[in-house]
Design goal:
heterodimer; A: mainly alpha; MetI-like fold; 2 domains; 13 helices; 78% helix; 0% strand; B: mainly alpha; MetI-like (chain B); Sugar ABC transporter permease (chain B); MetI-like_sf (chain B); transport (chain B)
Chain lengths: 287, 285
């Protein structure tokens, strides 16, 4: 009765094997091509200018570690690192707290009043930053938030609220109400219910938002460029941008600075890979 | 009664922090920007005049706008097509088990996690130093006004293909395997299976991806800003850079803000249209 299945498999096996192998080899080649720019960055960062001029592609004979110490000295690396870390931590904490709280009430109250706020937040997803750029800059000047880390944190949080609240609402709708109802019956306040019962249940979406907002804050260029124009509050992307304007003749040192600033995010990627990829696909595909 | 009232207030207090930040960063600047768009404000002086639709009239008669429009459309179309086609191709190709498949996925996604500034800087040197060594070309794509947008678009494709790949890959996981099995038994080849099963059932991923890249393409600012600062000359200036230039270096805030608003409406119309187009093609199974 089910003989047709094995026959098909026997017929298919030999002539499918070769294309599959070819396909795998091609995929390996493509992956290597994707890594090629990283190889260039690493090789440049450990070469002397003489060797770079002779053969930009080759691996160096002598590794010039001095590029790294020079880069640290010339670029205020640790100041920028500190600013990036502070900005990222601040943005992530603020984003998770305010978005989860707001999304909780929006998801649990399906009435006109809360729907209005839902659509208000959502409407900002489509809004290009260029529309806010100049008025935000003016507002931040007046509030003395320009060139400050808190100013940058608030701006980054604000532009991300729409998308992250949207992701939270979608997730919270799938969380059953029973647990919080029993908590309310036991006399827990709304805040107590939220922080000790609901919030821990949001762990999957919290980790998604954590990685997405961390990546967004760490790598942001446009918002930071408008809010920060002084060295004291410059984050890594801003420092890199300026650094390459100033040190175009010392590319090896500049590439050492690139590698240095890549290390934290690469370590983060290695550890949080599952969440990063899970995060970027959340909301993209209906399960 | 007062207790009910108090509870409603308590409920509302959950929204207040988000609303506060949102208003400060988005709502208030947005309306302030709309106001500026109808003035001749230079962005610095205390006083300015309302000029009605004058900025709009200027915008529609500015022939210098043609170049940024052309560049922006080129970037948006090129990156949308290549990121999605390559991303989908990689997702389908990687949707089998073989040694190292997860590692390959991580590698292809890797450019997505580094900052765009780093990506643009690395590629600047690949174009100027490495390409001439390998292909014996001169100068590089970014130094030539006719190829600069192509060069910038390639950087974007390299950086963002991994994102399209993982989204399509996640979409592929939602398609039941037995659909392919029964199609296979019915004698459908791999192309028929791809066009008759994979593509229609991946529509939700298309609905997400294609408007996303059209949208980001149309508001592109970062890549040209970092890679070429809009140059050589103004040959890689995009609409978003045009807005930036008028608001900051040229001190024409009113005009720049009107340009920003028009860019917003343009992106809104295009994305809504494209999203609806793909949403209508989503199928239930």
């Amino acid at each position: 009765m089910n003989t047709s299945v094995p026959i098909v498999q026997i017929k298919e096996a030999p002539n499918r094997r070769f294309p599959k192998l070819l396909r795998i080899i091609m995929l390996y080649i493509i992956a290597i091509l994707f890594l090629f720019p990283f190889y260039i960055a690493i090789v440049y960062s450990i070469k002397t200018p003489v060797e770079t001029a002779q053969s930009p592609l080759a691996f160096p004979t002598h590794i010039a570690w001095s590029n790294y110490s020079d880069a640290i000295a010339a670029s205020n690396f640790f100041l920028a690192l500190r600013n990036s870390v502070l900005t990222t931590i601040g943005t992530v904490l603020l984003t998770i707290t305010v978005c989860s709280m707001a999304a909780y009430m929006i998801a649990r109250n399906n009435n006109r009043f809360y729907n209005f706020f839902y659509y208000l937040f959502m409407s900002s997803i489509m809004l290009p930053f260029q529309v806010l750029m100049f008025p935000l800059y003016k507002t931040w000047t007046e509030l003395h938030l320009l060139n400050t880390i808190p100013g940058l944190i608030i701006a980054l949080t604000g532009v991300q609220i729409g998308y992250f609240a949207f992701l939270y609402v979608g997730f919270i709708k799938t969380v059953p109400r029973e647990l919080e109802e029993s908590a309310t019956l036991d006399g827990a306040s709304r805040y107590r219910t939220f922080f000790s019962i609901i919030f821990p249940l949001l762990k999957p979406i919290n980790s998604t938002i954590l990685v997405l907002s961390a990546l967004g804050a760490w790598n942001d260029f446009v918002v930071s460029m408008i809010i920060v124009q002084k060295k004291e509050a410059s984050t890594l992307p801003l420092v890199q941008f300026q650094f390459f304007g100033e040190y175009t003749s010392e590319i090896n040192m500049a590439f050492a600075a690139i590698i240095l600033s890549m290390i934290p995010i690469m370590v983060f990627y290695l550890f949080a890979q599952k969440y990063i990829i899970g995060g970027v696909t959340a909301g993209a595909v209906k399960g | 009664m007062t207790r009910k009232y108090k509870d409603e207030l308590l409920k509302f207090s959950f929204i207040v922090p988000a609303l506060l930040f949102f208003c400060l960063v988005v709502v208030f600047p947005f309306f302030r920007g709309v106001n500026i768009a109808f003035t001749n404000w230079n962005g610095i002086d205390m006083s300015y005049d309302y000029v009605g639709l004058h900025n709009l009239k200027l915008l529609f008669t500015d022939t210098e706008l043609l170049n940024p429009i052309k560049n922006t459309l080129f970037f948006a179309i090129f990156t949308t097509v290549f990121i999605n086609v390559i991303g989908l191709g990689l997702a389908v190709a990687l949707n089998t088990k073989f040694p190292g498949v997860n590692l390959l996925k991580s590698f292809i996604f890797m450019p997505m996690v580094i900052s765009l500034v780093l990506a643009a800087i690395i590629w600047r040197y690949i174009y100027s130093d490495i390409f001439p060594t390998i292909f014996h070309t001169d100068g590089g794509l970014l130094g030539n006004p006719t190829t600069v947008m192509l060069g910038i678009s390639i950087i974007s494709v390299w950086k963002e293909v991994g994102l399209a790949m993982v989204i399509y890959y996640a979409g592929l996981q939602t398609i039941p395997k037995d659909m392919y099995e029964s199609a296979h038994i019915d004698g459908a080849g791999s192309w028929t299976q791809f066009s008759k099963i994979t593509v229609p059932l991946l529509m939700p991923a298309f609905t997400y991806c294609i408007p996303l890249w059209i949208g980001t393409g149309l508001r592109q600012f970062d890549y040209p800003m970092v890679a070429t600062k809009g140059g050589p000359g103004t040959s890689s200036e995009t609409l978003a850079m045009y807005v930036y230039n008028y608001e900051f270096p040229y001190f024409k805030a009113g005009y720049g803000q009107m340009a920003a608003l028009m860019l917003f409406f343009f992106i809104l119309i295009v994305t809504v249209f494209v999203t609806n187009y793909f949403r209508r093609r989503e199928v239930e199974y």
